[in-house]
Amino acid sequence: MKQPISHKSTLGYFRWAFIITAVGLALGALLGWQSTGTMSGTATIFFICTVLAVLEISLSFDNAIVNANKLKEMTPVWQHRFLTWGIIIAVFGMRIVFPLAIVAIAASIGPIDAVILAARQPAEYARIMNEAHLPIAAFGGTFLLMVGLSYFFDPEKDVHWIVSVEKLMSRGATVKGIEIAFVLLLILTFASLLEGQESTTFVYSAIYGLVTFLVVEVIGALLDASQRAMAEAARGGLGAFIYLEVLDASFSFDGVIGAFALTQNLFIIAIGLGIGAMYVRSMTIMLVENGTLTHYRYLEHGAFYAILILAIIMYVQTLFHIPEVITGLGGAALIGVSLWSSIRHNKRKEARAKAEARARAEVHSPTRERLEA
Questions:
Q1: How far, in Å, CA of 247 to CA of 147, rounded?
Q2: 281-320 per-position pLDDT tens digit
Q3: What is the pLDDT confidence band of residue 328, given thresholds at 50, 70 and 90?
Q4: What span, in angstroms and rounded, lies between the C-alpha atoms of 310 and 214?
Q5: Cα angle: 154, vertex 163, 221; to 5 degrees
Q6: DSSP for residue 153
Q7: CB neighbours (10 Å) of residue 273?
Q8: How far is CA 189 from CA 144, 202, 221, 327, in A?
Q9: Alpha-helix residue ranges (DSSP H) falling in the chain
């Protein structure tokens, strides 16, 4: 679905993000003052909220690009629903409800008790969250692996950035289920590096991630096919919405777990990551309305490579810790290189067009001279 090119300024796209930033940081400062009663404590919590927001933004560049890639196929109605209701689910569901649900399940307590635990015993709350990291990483890593591989293992994909690798994967897509076989092999490899119950937990969680991806794909295809049967205008609706929500959840796992390295306070984490999520929303809207993905042809490639790297990092983190700064900078670097490659491609294309125009002018010039003579 072709999107109109917007003439809104860059700052205009981030207006609501700036507002939420101001409100969020003010709430963070208020929380710091109430919990510590000192200016230094207030400044510390204010700083942590800021760092968490930057962490979320750095980890989510690729999320914004993939969201934009899916949103451009959706109708304006479903775009609006995702960018309103979807962002509410992303901020409150994944940054607040999801961690509470993990603790409630892991500790066999009710949701209210999980909130009380987060407020009164943040250290215990953080311990439970960290213990749940292995199954979360296995589940989210597998889902993201399937997202990234499905982009490259596509027989109809004809634009390649790293040509030799992507052509090979595109040709390999003619073998049905090749990406699933690759992921299963990777699951078995990492499971063999773990011991005892951890190995079993990893396998089960990873399989659940794989099954979730396949179920979401099937449900999305059925829902969207049903909508096409009812009205072609409904194309890219509920199925795509569900896909994007599960995708956002998978992206959020790493940020939520990593945030506990900075603070054990759930409410500070929610403020910081919520601010970051608003910038992701703004970037998504800007990419869709400006047609950025169409103009920079390799930007999507960089995002999906970043997804694959993030998925592998989540797998590796089941063996040992990798600092979140490496995860964030690695993805941002890949996207930066893909943007640079896209700009170089556009310049070469423009130079060829000018050269061809000059050549045509030179060919036609003698013809005009003969006619004038």
A1: 8
A2: 888 888 877 777 778 888 888 888 888 888 898 899 889 8
A3: low
A4: 20
A5: 15
A6: S
A7: 28
A8: 17, 11, 31, 22
A9: 10-13, 15-36, 39-59, 61-71, 76-81, 87-88, 98-107, 111-120, 122-131, 133-152, 163-172, 178-193, 196-230, 238-259, 266-289, 292-295, 299-316, 324-372
Tokens of 97: 């409800």
Give the end-to-end CA distance of the chain in Å, rounded to a whole number: 52
Q: Which two tokens stand for residue 4?
A: 């109109």
- Whether residue 281 contacts residue 83, with contact meaning beta carbons closer than 8 Å, is answered with yes
Count Cβ atoms within 10 A of the Cβ of residue 185 and give its class: 0-12 exposed, 13-18 middle, 19 or more buried: exposed
User: Hunting for tokens 């990483």 — which residue is that?
Assistant: 137
Query: Residue 199 and residue 336: Cα distance in Å, rounded?
Result: 36
Could you tell me the CA-to-CA distances from 261 to 124, 241, 253, 255 in Å, in that order?
A: 14, 32, 14, 10
Q: Where are the domains of the chain?
A: 12-318+325-348
Position 183, amino acid:
V
φ/ψ bin of 196: left (φ > 0), alpha (ψ from -120 to 50), beta (otherwise): left
Asked if 332 and 309 count as a contact pair (C-beta separation under 8 A), the reply is no
